[in-house]
Design brief:
heterodimer, A: 487 residues, alpha+beta, tRNA-splicing ligase RtcB, 8-stranded mixed sheet, 19 strands, 34% helix, 25% strand, B: 137 residues, Archease, Possible Chaperone, Chain: A, domain 1, 5-stranded antiparallel sheet, 3-stranded antiparallel sheet, 8 strands
């Protein structure tokens, strides 16, 4: 297999960096750089992920290197964990495969003034209330239905539009990547079908690996950053993971259909059809960017409306307004997105289109796009793990700008396929196993819980160790799950 | 076996084997239903609907047909138990038979995000039509 050959071609740069040299495969315009340990590289020998890193290195206008984070695994076109920056001034392209179907899939972390001792006696009630209030699972509509005119405003206005409707606070807006609204969104670029799919899905969790988790801060590793983020040991937090739902899937689907034959028209040869692309400055590229940004704004709004449901649930269970419970947003960050950003490549400042597919923006201290309240410590980077072990709060660091176009990892990465996870769960009761570890887990179906069991994922601690060591981001706090609500 | 669901890292591949291209399209619809619903036989052929899929490339037609059925589930909350596919000028005409989604009888198992082009294959081998299409779940 070609993938095995690429494992053999990997050159070790240091303990956590590996190079796929440009010469490894015809058509590569830059090297591939993969972050990870030797054991992680060995795990990649039998899959296609390294091949995908090499494929992305073939895209026109790519600058620096085709990058992969330590949670790398197989994806569509781009691997999951892939980062690529293309330079529009050099014919650089935008590829929907570099963003994925779930546009602006991302995470947001809420902190609270509650401690584990406040929540532990009510864990069962809290889990039941969250499951009742948060629309989750396949085909479950949300509480909000947006008529097409309202939906268009939401798509272009993002979280600030929800603030005007009373569904978000000033602090909520201040603590989102891009302040919850990406400029240049074009609702008119969306198909009727995309709008139909989104009409009643804003404020829904969906299924698969999406979740709401109540967590407790297990340990703090960087007291100054933790203080800025409002996080202390023993504190209860809430992590929400979801994206742009059917609307985003449809935007990606429509774009891939519109791009049929387009690469050929621009003389672009592609090693994988799923890498379909167009120059950023072409009509086709601009159309996708406008639609993708609208879907990204939808996803920010989706997580915002879910935040409202979580706050309402906590109010019901603890009998106090959410503001009195301190349920404030720490940060909301995307991990499937493409953004035009300014970076330095070879000492030269360039404007590039950064594709992050299963990778998180990780801007360091001092960067003007980091909210003022966090600017002296760096942007919060939220890395969900699995439902049994841990998740992490990190802070962006300088190495991310130097080596990874301001990016870091996004999660643990799957270790087992869904079927393999089901086989591994046979004869077991995953929910009871989690309960024995003090975790209340609820899912729309038992199958969903089995597919997403902890063993289905790699250990997020190992992934975070790599990004910390590589200076892509630094550890701030580790969080453990208390309540898990799965779609 | 006319179709199978093959394990694929985080996702699932539909693998279809049929005596003709049109039969392949029809089997693909069954394969998709078996991924969406725990018990496909719980879906009755209570009503029909018809739509056309423009195009001529077999692989593109397969993606577009399955994408159409997927969108029908989300936008109209309607499940197709069986499809009859015929060639017409400029593409395919599809007659789908099924019924409205009823959560009391139809247990949905996976949210299928999309039908992908990754490693998409539709080909004729020794008189049999074979396809492999990966769906994002």
């Amino acid at each position: 297999m070609a993938a095995t050959n690429l494992r053999d071609r990997l050159e070790r740069i240091d303990a956590v960096r590996w190079r796929i040299p440009r010469a490894a495969r015809p058509g590569m315009r830059v090297d591939g750089i993969v972050f990870g340990t030797e054991a992680m590289m060995d795990d990649l020998a039998t899959g296609e992920a390294l091949e995908q890193v090499a494929n992305v290195a073939c895209l026109p206008g790519i600058r620096g290197a085709s990058l992969a984070m330590p949670d790398i695994h197989w994806g569509y076109g781009f691997c999951i964990g892939g980062v690529a920056a293309t330079d529009p001034s050099q014919g650089g392209v935008i590829s929907p495969g570099g963003v994925g179907y779930d546009i602006n899939c991302g995470v947001r972390l809420l902190r609270s003034d509650l401690g584990e001792a406040d929540v532990r006696p009510l864990l069962h009630d809290l889990a039941a209330a969250l499951q009742a209030n948060v629309p989750a699972g396949v085909g479950t509509p949300g509480r909000h239905h947006f008529a097409q005119r309202e939906l268009r405003r939401l798509l272009e206005g993002g979280v600030p539009y929800l603030r005007a409707l009373g569904f978000a606070s000033d602090d909520d807006v201040a603590c989102c990547e891009a302040y919850g609204r990406i400029d240049g969104a074009e609702a008119d670029a969306l198909s009727t079908r995309a709008l139909e799919r989104g009409a009643d899905q804003c404020g829904t969790l969906g299924s698969g690996n999406h979740f709401v988790e109540v967590q407790v801060v297990d340990r703090v590793e960087d007291p100054l950053a933790a203080e800025r983020f409002g996080v202390v040991e023993g504190q209860v937090c809430v992590l929400i993971h979801t994206g742009s739902r059917g609307l985003g899937y449809q935007v990606c689907d429509d774009a891939l259909r519109a791009l049929r034959g387009v690469p050929e028209r621009y003389g672009i040869e592609l090693p994988d059809r799923q890498l379909a692309c167009a120059p950023v400055h072409s009509d086709e590229g601009r159309a996708y960017l406008g639609g993708m940004r609208a879907a990204a704004n939808f996803a920010f709004c989706n997580r915002q409306l879910l935040t409202g449901l979580v706050r309402e649930t906590f109010e019901g269970v603890f009998g106090r307004p959410w503001s009195a419970l301190g349920l404030e947003l720490v940060y909301d960050v995307a991990h499937n997105i493409a953004k035009v950003e300014r970076h330095h490549v070879g000492g030269e400042a360039v404007e590039v289109c950064v594709h992050r597919k299963g990778a998180t923006r990780a801007f360091p201290a001092g960067h003007p796009d980091v909210p003022a309240r966090y600017r002296d410590v760096g942007q919060p980077v939220i890395v969900p793990g699995d439902m049994g072990r841990a998740s992490w709060l990190l802070a962006g660091s300088e190495g991310a700008m130097r080596d990874a176009f301001g990016s870091s990892c996004h999660g643990a990465g799957r270790a087992l396929s869904r079927k393999a996870a089901l086989r591994a769960a046979k004869g077991r009761d995953v929910r009871a196993e989690l309960a024995a570890r003090g975790i209340e887990a609820r899912a729309a179906s038992r199958r969903g819980l089995d597919e997403e069991q902890p063993d289905a994922y790699k250990d997020v601690d190992d992934v975070v160790d790599v990004v910390h060591q590589a200076d892509l981001s630094r550890k701030v706090a580790r969080l453990k799950p208390l309540v898990v609500i799965k779609g | 076996m006319p179709f199978a669901l093959r394990d694929h890292t985080a996702d699932v591949a539909l693998v279809i084997d049929a005596p003709s291209l049109l039969a392949l399209f029809e089997e693909a619809c069954q394969a998709l239903l078996s991924l969406l619903v725990e018990e496909p036989s719980s879906v009755r052929e209570a009503e029909g609907c018809a739509f056309e899929v423009p195009g001529d490339d077999p692989a593109d037609l397969l993606v577009d047909l399955l994408s159409e059925l997927l969108a029908t589930v989300e936008t109209r909350r309607w499940l197709a138990r069986r499809c009859c596919v015929e060639r017409v000028a400029g593409g395919l005409r599809v007659r789908a038979f099924g019924e409205a989604l009823d959560p009391s009888r139809h247990r949905l198992t996976h949210e299928v995000k999309a039908i992908t082009y990754h490693r998409l294959k539709v080909r004729c081998v020794r008189g049999r039509w074979l396809a492999e299409v990966i769906v994002d779940v």
